[in-house]
Amino acid sequence: MATFISHSIAETAALGEQWGRAASAGWLVGLSGDLGAGKTLLAGGLARGLGVTGRVPSPTFALVHEYPGGRLPLWHLDLYRLTTRAEIAAAGLESYLCRPQGVVVVEWIERWLEEQSGPLAPGVRMRRVEIKIAGDAERRITYEDFGG
Q: Mean pLDDT for the chain?
């Protein structure tokens, strides 16, 4: 497990951008953290690292936003309004989580993982990220990779 201490919005976005430049197809980035911790900011940085231009807003009400214009397609999901794996499946989002064709960033990933049993699908690599608010602009970002 690795830890990154961000002292600013710019540092959090830059970490995401670095991850986006290194991303490969089949990558799932699962984000956890309180409201306002910086999940969407990190996702926006990752999108820039993939070459996506334009604003990357939270998909809380849309559930998923697709960004096809980068080096790899990016899907940005937000599970905040869903509470069970059955609701996630009923919303048609499970296919993004089980067999990503590009890069998938999921806010509130714990909503899916709480009922997840067994290993990830073959070919899926997941980075599990926890963002904790450590101060006004400071964030403690811990992450670990799983799968392959």
A: 91
